Amino acid sequence: MSFIIGYLNGEPQELTLINGMVHINNQIQPIKNVTEEEIRLMEQALEDVPEGDEEGREAFRNARRIEFLVSLLSRTFGDEATDFLEQLIGNLHYRVLEYLGETDDLDDYVEERMVRRSRHSHDHDHDHDHGCTCGCDHHHED
């Protein structure tokens, strides 16, 4: 039993359940207690998408994939597997927002956070507070 759980860098990411063990792209993953019934229901959910334009149908599928992947997070062990699922969820979420036309603000927010963080070096002692808004709890020098 297998299905595509999303795409990263244009490549499909396929989840397969073999003898109760979760594999993603043919590599066993530390994700516990996934049943064949869950996989079957998810496969069916991806097929039973309401009629409409293909972009809308794909956004709907991605929303269902997100729901499924979030349910896996609580059963995932290890930073690498958790990070992979979170990256995939983030990518799918962005695609849904893109379909909804809500990515302009998100792009600006991400760019602002990246610029703001790159201005600060957290590698040295700080003794001057310049009103930092980077979210850290210590002082920065200009």
Describe it.
The protein has 142 residues and is α+β, with helices and mostly antiparallel strands. The protein has one domain (2-117). The protein contains 4 helices and 4 strands, in the order ββββαααα. It has helices spanning 36-47, 54-73, 79-100, 103-118; strands spanning 2-8, 11-18, 21-24, 27-28. It has a 4-stranded antiparallel β-sheet with strand order 1-2-3-4. Strand 3 (21-24) and strand 4 (27-28) form a beta hairpin. Helix 1 runs antiparallel to helix 2 (54-73) and helix 2 packs antiparallel against helix 3 (79-100). The chain starts with a strand and ends in a 24-residue tail after the last helix. Mean pLDDT is 82; it is low at 119-142.
Secondary structure: elements and pairs:
Blueprint: E1 2-8, E2 11-18, E3 21-24, E4 27-28, H1 36-47, H2 54-73, H3 79-100, H4 103-118
Antiparallel strand pairs: 1-2, 2-3, 3-4
Helix pairs in contact: 1-2, 2-3
Low-confidence stretches: 119-142
Mean pLDDT: 82
Query: Judging from the principal axes of the Cα atoms, what is the shape?
Result: globular
Q: Spatial order of the strands in the main sheet? A: 1-2-3-4
Radius of gyration from the alpha-carbon trace, in angstroms:
20 Å
Oligomer: single chain
Task: List its traits.
142 residues; four-stranded antiparallel sheet; globular; disordered C terminus; 49% helix; 4 helices; alpha+beta
Give a summary of the structure in a few sentences:
The protein is of the alpha+beta class and 142 residues long. The chain has helices at 36-47, 54-73, 79-100, 103-118, and strands at 2-8, 11-18, 21-24, 27-28.
